[in-house]
Write a structure and sequence with these properties.
mainly alpha
Length: 50
């Protein structure tokens, strides 16, 4: 994860990101992906089911 942090971010930001729990990050990503899937499904239904 550390290698994807931009070089132009401050040292404090990098330290904070490195201390952030991977579990919390992955849970947030799973929730985001779930929300996106729900949104696409909703849009698909609105578009193709009349």
């Amino acid at each position: 994860m550390a290698h994807s942090i931009p070089n132009n971010s401050s040292q404090a930001d990098r330290d904070l990101l490195q201390k952030m729990p991977d579990l919390l990050l992955s849970m947030e990503y799973e929730q985001l992906i779930s929300d996106v899937k729900s949104l696409y499904r909703f849009m698909f239904d609105q578009t193709f089911t009349r």
